[in-house]
Amino acid sequence: MGAMEIWINPACSKCRSAISLLDAEGAGYTVRRYLEDVPSEDEIRDVLDRLGLEPWDITRTQEAVAKELGLKDWARDASARDRWVKALSEHPKLIQRPIITADDGTALVARTDEAVRDALSR
Questions:
Q1: For the residues 22-28, what does the mean pLDDT come to?
Q2: Surface-to-core class of residue 94, CB atoms within 10 Å of its CB (0-12 exposed, 13-18 middle, 19+ buried)
Q3: In the chain, where does DSSP find H-type helix?
Q4: What is the mean pLDDT of residues 27-48?
């Protein structure tokens, strides 16, 4: 079973490049338009575990909503983790993209061709 999934925003050029590269390599994958099919808090936690990252590591802090929420001033420690995860689920625009979940259950943020190739080789 090819479990590769890519979370994209179709308006994002890096997401479109990643998809083009996956297609060029003939990779089997599922697309998730995460702004429409919004990940739950549990799904975000699962992806963070696979990425080996914390929620603030995949947060787009330049987004307008990030500024409204004052994310820059939020604590970045274990006690604040749930607050960040909740914000990502409530405001999926904040999620860094594209995120590829590789066949081996790991994941990575695929903002370069190298990262996409890395996902394909896992």
A1: 94
A2: buried
A3: 13-24, 41-51, 64-69, 81-90, 113-121
A4: 96
